[in-house]
User: Fold this.
Amino acid sequence: MTGRLSTLAAAFVIARRDFTAILFSRSFFFFLLGPLFPIMVGGLAGGIGKEVQSNAARPELGIAMSAADSQALLAARQRLEPQLGAAIPMLVVVRNVGPGESFDAAAAMQDKRVNLAAVVTGTLQRPQLAGPEERIADWRGPVAVLAGEAQRTGATDYPTVDLAPLKLATTADEARSRMVTAQLGQTVLFLLTMLLAGMVLSNLVEEKGNKIIEVLAAAIPMDAVFLGKLFAMLAVSFVGISVWAGAGSAVWLAAGGSLGQYPAPAVGWPLFFALGTAYFAMGYLLLGSLFLAIGSMASTVREVQTLSMPVTMLQLLNFFFASWAMARPGSAVELAAMIVPFSSPFAMLARAAQSDALLPHVLALGWQVICVAVFVRVGATLFRRWVMKSGPARSDGKGPWSRLWSKVFTRRAVR
Amino acid sequence: MASNAGWQTARPLAIEARGLVKRFDGFTAVDGVDISVPEGAIYGILGPNGAGKTTTLRMLLGIIDPDEGVRRVLGHDRPHEISHAIGYLPEERGLYPAMKAYEAIAFLGALRGLPLAEGRKRGRAMLEEHGLGYATERQIRQLSKGMAQQVQLLGTLVHEPKLVVFDEPFSGLDALNQGKLEKMIRALAAKGTTVIFSTHVIAHAERLCDEVAIIAGGKVPFAGPVDVARDRIRPQVRLETRAGDGPWRAALPADARHEGDYWLFSLPETGIEPLLRALIEGEAGILSLSIERAGLHDAFVAIAGEAAARALEEGNGEEAR
Assistant:
């Protein structure tokens, strides 16, 4: 005979089985490759977008003036470009207009063969700009400068301006920088929890499908089963994050990246990373315990898939709440975000970037541990009460979600 | 409630349950069950499908809590506190398909507190011992249903429990493996392990059990030694006479019926001697007379009723099909 297992030891038995089963499965390789796809898609979309944006941001203005004026304008643009760069528009000679000859600017702009945003006509002394009414005023200044420069006979000698950069951050700059770090930290934390915590939704489907749940429920408390599953998925997540972070850091460092180029968080980078890890674990366990409880009520994979949409929305809502609170440091909203269990890890990580006080983190982590314990206990109790039943009441083969849905649907139909 | 001999037994009890009630959405699946299982006994829970056997076992094991009543398993009110001393084979078998056979056994042992390394060692040895050595490194998904069932059975016993609970252990096994399982159950009891199993096959209970609980419609009309159950109905007398009729006929009890060459009736409360005397004096010409003790099936019919017996037989028929 053997000795009695504590809840934690029993959870470890479950966690070890789940962890090795996932880690040594073929699908884990694809799990590791997972983030590559959004990065690739993001990179491609970003590149295309950048090109589109640069094309759209550098408008071409057509010139329909006398040949001399057109050449003078082009020469003036060439002289000004080193000083003003992208601030002056591109110029294209559409037609050299003879004296008394008229030009249809609207028709030129609608010509599909060219890409004109506006057309400059008239003379250098009195240029006329024709173009869409909502944007035409923006080019008035640049065209005036170009026309003025074009009228000069000699080259203008622009003085060289010496730069004297100061390594100086004002209080406002520091606050703004830390806000950026906070936002970045929150976003990374959110992406990781969203990517990984959703996986626990379907975590008990295997056990229910294989009828192993009966063996587990007879041997160890359901709390231990839930905890074990959460720990296993957390450990799998850490393996994934380590691989992704390792690969990402290598690429980043190879590209000459350095933490020094980013605004340092209030608690310093080492502690910020440590707290980030702790808050990821807590955020994962908090959301995971909720998702595990919700998912455990599902009888089939289809039900789990149906549940994933509202669950993702819930995560987004949570993230928006924490982000909203971050912009209001010291307010009641921030305090609420720190206390509400699901937003607490996000809000606290943002706080770590903005404030160097450590006591709130100790309290928050303690509070989050208590909440995880409560959620696991409630989830396990609900599972035992709703799912771990046998007998005629379950002969319809439906889970609680199906029955709830049937009930609502039937009532509506009766009305 | 019928007599429940266990409460008065001198042997310490492995399981005591009083007034267990379980309802599901208004349906009472188990209605006031009392069970007492002496330590070291082979105890059968006998009843047709849907009688409440599995629900009773699940309550005893702490998988679900009763709505009413109390239970004590190996001296503990909360079965999980003593789960390391219990082995359980559920009716719906289940193992992780990707696990190797010896790992599955070790995992089931680990759930009951057996160190994994020891479980692996014992798992390999048990598979060898039971003629499944060739399957040691095979994944569960590569085994036949019957073999996987045997692996789970070994996993149920790997931590050497004091109490073993089998839910319908014979279902799904062929005759050869049923025989092996019966042998295994006897061996466990011989070592002092308490074995409790549910079944809807009377023959298994009759061959194996020291005590049974007969369960029908969520109630237990009888719980106690098999002999006591059989003694609930009077032994049957089978009489063959030379004379077809005569004054001796008046000596036969009112329930006597003629089947073929024989008269069949329950043994009179006065015993066999007065009847024999009357038959001889009435010149019946006795060719043969035998007194047969009632079987558990007859006892089941008498205790649980014809309807429950029919349900039990239908269940057996379904399984045979």
User: Anything to note?
Assistant: Residues 222-254 of chain A form the longest helix (33 residues). Strands of chain A lie at 60-65, 90-96, 116-122, 127-130.
